Amino acid sequence: MRLLTLIGIGGNLDSPRWGPPRSTLSAALDELGREGVTICARSAWYRSEPVPPSDQPWFINAVAAVETGLDAAGLLAVMQAVETRFGRVRGVRNEARIVDLDLLDHGGERIDTESLILPHPRLHQRRFVLEPLAEIAPKWRHPVLGKTASQLLARIADEQPVERLPD
Question: Directed axis angle between helix 21-34 and helix 72-85, to 10°?
Answer without folding.
Answer: 130
